[in-house]
Design a protein that fits this description.
heterodimer, A: alpha/beta, Rossmann fold, six-stranded parallel beta sheet, four-stranded mixed beta sheet, B: alpha/beta, 5 helices, globular, binds iron/sulfur cluster
Chain lengths: 450, 182
């Protein structure tokens, strides 16, 4: 069995994990549905959002140039990183130049992608995660399990045990008390940090703004209190001009956390003389496989993704196995594709497209209407025929192991209009199917690995 | 049909309740000054920092009850500001614009203190008298000053990172009070 299969099987037999993830995801999806239903122009906004993203990807190099020109004219510095090593190298060099040893990190998927945490640790630099969920998983020595809710897999009792032991306070599992303890601990760091590092949701070419969307205030702290601020993001996060942010921000929070707007949305420019904020500001734009994906007509569409996480929350497979089973920084439907785009794709990432029932719920929920099932099939088709079937088999076992799940998956598939006559969505077990309906197993077929 | 300014203000006010922010209705500036004093005393907020463009009636209201640790209208070093903001019980700031449909305060950063005053103290009072009210973000972005850092604030800081349970008050303020017209 591959590591993915082992992880999937383990996740399936660990029912508290399954139910914690399921509950959280369903909550997010329900909240998302409520606030999306309020928008009478939802489809129109979605169309605009997709156009904004499409324009950015179609004109990426000139938007990057324009952003660089504007951000640097305002006193900041833009760096381009070809890959993970390059990106970490730039960060370490910037820190070394200022002799910065103590920092504070805000949530950044790209930082996870490039392995920045380990690189900093290795260099003896102390960078604490400040997003509460990231802080929890950092203390636990685990990777995040969701792109917007890193500690989703943990119960509050387990978080209570962890935080009370590490931060030395009497055990509680009350989220408000736990948050307060973490706040106090991290506050000291914010006030004395040599540097702040964060991700960015977008960068605006015409105005030279970085856009950061968050709820806790740690992102704002990062570009307010330390003298040095480094933002790391993917090259694809461009938008043309400030008004282009409107459809993006209208849909991002709604799709992600079911909020109309996140608590803090910041449009950040390099600090002007006489303002508070870091005297030195850098942006690192990371390629790490993105340009190659843009040049690939079948995967280019994935570059439109705004990492809202809605496709994770709705995915029947993600909800059952949780994020860690994907063994990748990017889990869920978007992650199954993204993991094959960025960094060096591995035999394991090649298996990820199998962790899908191809029910199409991800595409329906996506604020950019990204055709995820099409790309999952494309990636399955790129593998040598019959190469890997183990994780697909695990998926199969998962669905069949519970009548309720079988029923749910069936319902979702029926809604998506892609059910086979025998009651099963097609393609579940395919090692390389080319349409949703190919390679469908008989209902009684045994999973390949058993 | 687009909404009238009164309807937009009403929508903005409704949102504050949903966001766990507190909207303090004020008849006029005297009423606002009275209410500000009352809150400073009742909550024992005895140390204050002020962002830029905060009107003088706020300074006058604070004078007898609280110590003014930093004021963005005066020249103060970054280090002093940081010390003041981390010690202060409350930060009071001016708001340039409102976005009604999301309940958002728009506070661009202009001078030293404008980022810290609304972020670092545990309590934030936002004054919205004279703020331009927009229905949507799109309207604001249409003529936002491209040279400034813009901070959009929608409620007090929050997290749902532990079992999706909402907790208000993380790294930013725990309480957000909005002083505005009745
Ligand atoms: S693929 Fe769509 S739904 Fe999934 S994270 Fe990206 S934008 Fe969100």
């Amino acid at each position: 069995m591959s590591r993915i299969s082992i992880a999937v099987n383990k996740a399936l037999s660990d029912s508290p994990l399954g139910s914690a993830v399921l509950k959280s995801c369903d909550l997010s999806t329900n909240k998302r549905n409520e606030v999306i239903a309020e928008l009478d122009d939802f489809e129109e906004t979605r169309k605009q959002a997709r156009e904004v993203r499409q324009f950015a990807i179609d004109n990426l190099e000139s938007l990057i140039d324009l952003f660089t020109k504007n951000f640097e004219a305002a006193g900041g510095k833009v760096h381009q990183a070809a890959d993970e090593r390059d990106a970490c190298g730039i960060v370490l060099e910037l820190l070394k130049r200022r002799n910065a040893r103590k920092g504070i990190k805000s949530k950044s998927m790209v930082a996870e992608e490039i392995g920045l945490g380990e690189a900093l640790e290795h260099a003896g630099i102390d960078a604490i995660e400040s997003d509460l969920g990231e802080f929890i998983v950092q203390l636990a020595g685990e990777p995040p399990s969701h792109i917007t809710a890193p500690a989703l897999h943990r119960s509050r009792q387990s978080i209570g045990k962890l935080l009370s032991a590490k931060l030395k306070f009497p055990y509680t599992d009350d989220p408000a008390k736990l948050t307060k303890e973490a706040r106090g601990h991290l506050r000291k760091r914010f006030l004395t940090a040599d540097f702040g590092i964060a991700g960015a949701n977008f960068f605006v070419a015409e105005s030279g703004h970085l856009v950061m969307v968050e709820n806790e205030g740690n992102g704002r702290m990062g570009f307010t209190t330390p003298p040095l601020f480094i933002s790391i993001t993917g090259i694809e996060k461009a938008v043309g001009a400030l008004p282009d942010l409107s459809p993006m921000l209208r849909l991002l929070a709604r799709s992600s956390t079911g909020q109309r707007f996140t608590t803090y949305t910041s449009l950040i420019r390099p600090t002007r003389p006489g303002e508070d904020g870091p005297g030195e500001m850098h942006v690192i734009l990371v390629d790490n496989g993105r340009r190659e994906a843009i040049a690939d007509p079948d995967l280019r569409e994935m570059m439109l993704c705004i990492r809202c996480g809605a496709c994770l929350n709705i995915c029947p497979v993600y909800k059952s196995v949780g994020g860690h089973a994907y063994k990748s920084v990017y889990p869920g439907p978007m992650g199954a594709i993204w993991s094959n785009i960025v960094g060096t794709p591995t035999a394991e990432s090649a298996e990820l497209p199998d962790l899908s029932t191809l029910c199409g719920a991800c595409k329906d929920v996506c604020p950019i209407s990204i055709d995820i099932p099409r790309m999952l099939l494309e990636l399955r088709g790129r593998r040598p025929k019959g190469a890997i079937e183990s994780s697909a088999a695990a998926t199969w076992k998962w669905t069949m192991s519970s009548p309720e799940r079988y029923e749910t998956a069936g319902k979702i598939a029926r809604t998506a209009g892609m059910l086979l006559p025998n009651g099963l969505p097609g393609g579940w077990l395919s090692g390389g199917g080319s349409s949703y309906r190919e390679d469908a197993p008989d209902q009684g077929e045994e999973p390949a690995n058993e | 049909m687009s909404k009238s300014p009164d309807e937009l203000l009403e929508q903005f006010r409704e949102r504050q309740h949903e966001l766990s922010a507190e909207y303090i209705r004020c008849q006029d500036i005297e009423d606002a000054a009275r209410k500000l004093k009352a809150i400073l005393v009742a909550e024992d907020w005895d140390t204050v920092v002020l962002g830029s463009e905060v009107p003088d009636w706020v300074r006058d209201s604070c004078r007898d009850f609280a110590e003014l640790l930093a004021d963005a209208s005066n020249e103060t070093s970054n280090e002093e500001w940081l010390k003041a903001a981390s010690y202060a019980r409350v930060g009071i700031t001016h708001t340039e614009a409102l976005i009604a449909d999301t309940g958002t305060l728009v506070q661009p950063s202009r001078v030293r203190g404008d980022r810290m005053a609304s972020l670092i103290p545990p309590n934030h009072i936002a004054l919205i008298f004279g703020a331009v009210i927009h229905e949507t973000l799109a309207e604001y972005l249409g003529d936002a000053d491209p040279t400034l850092t813009h901070q959009f604030i929608t409620g007090p800081s929050r997290t749902a990172d532990i079992e999706k349970q909402l907790v208000v008050g993380v790294h930013g303020p725990v309480r957000l009070l909005i002083f505005g017209p009745d």
